[in-house]
Prior knowledge:
Blueprint: H1 20-27, H2 35-50, E1 66-70, H3 74-85, E2 89-93, H4 102-105, H5 114-126, E3 130-132
Parallel strand pairs: 1-2, 2-3
Amino acid sequence: MTGSRGAACPLGGGPDVFSGYEYGRRTGRTSAGSVSKEVSALKEIEKAYAQNLAVPCRPKLRTGKRIAVIGSGPAGLAAADQLNKRGHSVTVFERSDRVGGLLMYGIPNMKLEKWVIDRKIQVMKEEGVVFVTNSDIGKNY
Protein backbone atom coordinates (compact mmCIF):
# COMPACT_ATOMS: atom_id res chain seq x y z
CA MET A 1 0.00 0.00 0.00
CA THR A 2 1.22 3.41 -0.85
CA GLY A 3 0.06 6.88 0.02
CA SER A 4 -0.70 8.44 3.34
CA ARG A 5 -3.68 10.70 2.81
CA GLY A 6 -7.35 10.23 2.19
CA ALA A 7 -10.50 9.50 4.14
CA ALA A 8 -12.76 6.74 5.28
CA CYS A 9 -14.20 4.50 2.63
CA PRO A 10 -17.94 5.13 2.26
CA LEU A 11 -19.45 1.82 1.17
CA GLY A 12 -16.09 0.63 -0.08
CA GLY A 13 -16.03 2.99 -3.06
CA GLY A 14 -14.20 6.12 -1.94
CA PRO A 15 -10.73 7.13 -0.90
CA ASP A 16 -9.00 5.38 1.92
CA VAL A 17 -6.63 7.18 4.31
CA PHE A 18 -3.87 4.61 4.21
CA SER A 19 -4.16 3.54 0.60
CA GLY A 20 -3.64 6.28 -1.96
CA TYR A 21 -2.89 3.56 -4.50
CA GLU A 22 -6.31 2.00 -3.97
CA TYR A 23 -7.98 5.39 -4.39
CA GLY A 24 -6.14 5.93 -7.65
CA ARG A 25 -7.01 2.44 -8.90
CA ARG A 26 -10.70 2.86 -8.16
CA THR A 27 -11.10 6.39 -9.49
CA GLY A 28 -8.58 6.38 -12.33
CA ARG A 29 -6.84 9.36 -10.72
CA THR A 30 -3.29 9.61 -9.52
CA SER A 31 -1.59 11.96 -7.11
CA ALA A 32 1.93 11.10 -8.26
CA GLY A 33 3.93 14.01 -9.58
CA SER A 34 1.34 16.72 -9.16
CA VAL A 35 0.71 18.74 -6.02
CA SER A 36 -2.47 20.21 -7.50
CA LYS A 37 -3.95 16.73 -7.95
CA GLU A 38 -3.05 15.93 -4.34
CA VAL A 39 -4.69 19.12 -3.08
CA SER A 40 -7.75 18.41 -5.22
CA ALA A 41 -8.03 14.91 -3.75
CA LEU A 42 -7.75 16.31 -0.22
CA LYS A 43 -10.53 18.78 -0.97
CA GLU A 44 -12.72 15.92 -2.21
CA ILE A 45 -12.01 13.98 0.97
CA GLU A 46 -12.91 16.91 3.20
CA LYS A 47 -16.07 17.42 1.16
CA ALA A 48 -16.99 13.76 1.72
CA TYR A 49 -16.61 14.19 5.48
CA ALA A 50 -18.58 17.45 5.43
CA GLN A 51 -21.46 15.77 3.58
CA ASN A 52 -21.38 12.69 5.88
CA LEU A 53 -20.39 10.42 3.01
CA ALA A 54 -17.30 9.18 4.82
CA VAL A 55 -19.09 7.18 7.47
CA PRO A 56 -17.97 4.03 9.28
CA CYS A 57 -18.80 0.81 7.44
CA ARG A 58 -18.83 -2.24 9.68
CA PRO A 59 -18.27 -5.54 7.87
CA LYS A 60 -21.55 -7.32 7.18
CA LEU A 61 -20.12 -10.72 8.08
CA ARG A 62 -17.48 -11.62 10.66
CA THR A 63 -15.17 -14.57 10.01
CA GLY A 64 -14.75 -15.43 13.68
CA LYS A 65 -10.98 -15.07 13.36
CA ARG A 66 -9.20 -12.80 15.86
CA ILE A 67 -6.08 -10.94 14.80
CA ALA A 68 -3.59 -8.96 16.89
CA VAL A 69 -1.65 -6.14 15.24
CA ILE A 70 1.38 -4.94 17.18
CA GLY A 71 2.08 -1.26 16.60
CA SER A 72 -0.25 1.47 15.43
CA GLY A 73 1.99 3.24 12.96
CA PRO A 74 1.08 3.59 9.29
CA ALA A 75 1.58 -0.11 8.50
CA GLY A 76 -0.25 -1.31 11.61
CA LEU A 77 -3.23 0.94 10.96
CA ALA A 78 -3.36 -0.04 7.29
CA ALA A 79 -3.20 -3.74 8.14
CA ALA A 80 -5.85 -3.40 10.86
CA ASP A 81 -8.15 -1.46 8.54
CA GLN A 82 -7.90 -3.98 5.70
CA LEU A 83 -8.23 -7.03 7.96
CA ASN A 84 -11.27 -5.52 9.65
CA LYS A 85 -12.86 -4.85 6.26
CA ARG A 86 -12.35 -8.54 5.46
CA GLY A 87 -14.44 -9.41 8.51
CA HIS A 88 -11.77 -10.39 11.03
CA SER A 89 -11.89 -9.13 14.62
CA VAL A 90 -8.81 -6.93 14.97
CA THR A 91 -7.08 -5.66 18.11
CA VAL A 92 -4.22 -3.17 17.73
CA PHE A 93 -1.67 -3.05 20.55
CA GLU A 94 0.34 0.15 21.00
CA ARG A 95 3.22 0.68 23.44
CA SER A 96 2.64 4.45 23.67
CA ASP A 97 -0.24 6.23 25.34
CA ARG A 98 -1.62 7.39 21.99
CA VAL A 99 -2.50 5.51 18.81
CA GLY A 100 -0.78 6.57 15.60
CA GLY A 101 2.90 5.76 16.02
CA LEU A 102 5.06 7.64 13.51
CA LEU A 103 2.02 9.54 12.26
CA MET A 104 1.53 11.11 15.70
CA TYR A 105 5.07 11.36 17.03
CA GLY A 106 7.29 11.59 13.95
CA ILE A 107 5.52 13.95 11.55
CA PRO A 108 5.24 17.64 12.47
CA ASN A 109 1.80 19.30 12.58
CA MET A 110 2.66 21.57 9.65
CA LYS A 111 2.90 18.47 7.43
CA LEU A 112 0.13 16.32 8.91
CA GLU A 113 -2.31 17.68 11.44
CA LYS A 114 -3.10 15.25 14.25
CA TRP A 115 -6.86 15.71 14.03
CA VAL A 116 -6.76 13.99 10.62
CA ILE A 117 -5.28 10.87 12.19
CA ASP A 118 -7.62 11.07 15.21
CA ARG A 119 -10.59 11.26 12.83
CA LYS A 120 -9.53 8.10 10.95
CA ILE A 121 -8.83 6.25 14.19
CA GLN A 122 -12.30 7.17 15.45
CA VAL A 123 -13.82 5.79 12.24
CA MET A 124 -11.83 2.58 12.68
CA LYS A 125 -13.08 2.24 16.27
CA GLU A 126 -16.65 2.67 15.08
CA GLU A 127 -16.03 -0.02 12.46
CA GLY A 128 -15.03 -2.45 15.21
CA VAL A 129 -11.24 -2.22 15.52
CA VAL A 130 -10.13 -2.35 19.17
CA PHE A 131 -7.12 -0.29 20.28
CA VAL A 132 -5.13 -1.14 23.41
CA THR A 133 -2.60 1.51 24.44
CA ASN A 134 0.20 1.37 27.04
CA SER A 135 0.73 -2.31 26.24
CA ASP A 136 4.28 -3.42 25.68
CA ILE A 137 3.87 -6.92 24.27
CA GLY A 138 6.03 -9.38 26.17
CA LYS A 139 6.38 -7.12 29.21
CA ASN A 140 3.00 -6.01 30.47
CA TYR A 141 0.59 -7.79 28.18
